[in-house]
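Usage

Read records sequentially. Each one opens with the input sequence:
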Amino acid sequence: MRITFAPAKRAKTLADRGLDFADAALVFAGVTLEIEDILREGAPARTRFIRLLQAGGSDYPYDLYKQAGVDMATPGPYQALAARMNRLMDEVDALEKH
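and closes with the structure output:
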């Protein structure tokens, strides 16, 4: 998945909020994988995700996810995001047919 953004908005958001749009793919893919893990594993995955949220912006998203057991350097998180998006689009298609 390729995410695009306006360079001026990226610079302003980075300066004002410390958020880099370039990290968006990391964030969306990681959260999707965490949600899938919570649904599959229950409490252990939920605890990891809560710790990730509690860490806030204390480190780079890549490093925080790695500490939570999600390796963003592998295809898994991105595949989980693509699969979730496909399921959601299938649901939208089904709703449109009714």
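Summary fields computed downstream for this record:
- The helical segments are 7-17, 24-41, 43-55, 61-67, 76-96.
- The chain has one domain: 7-96.
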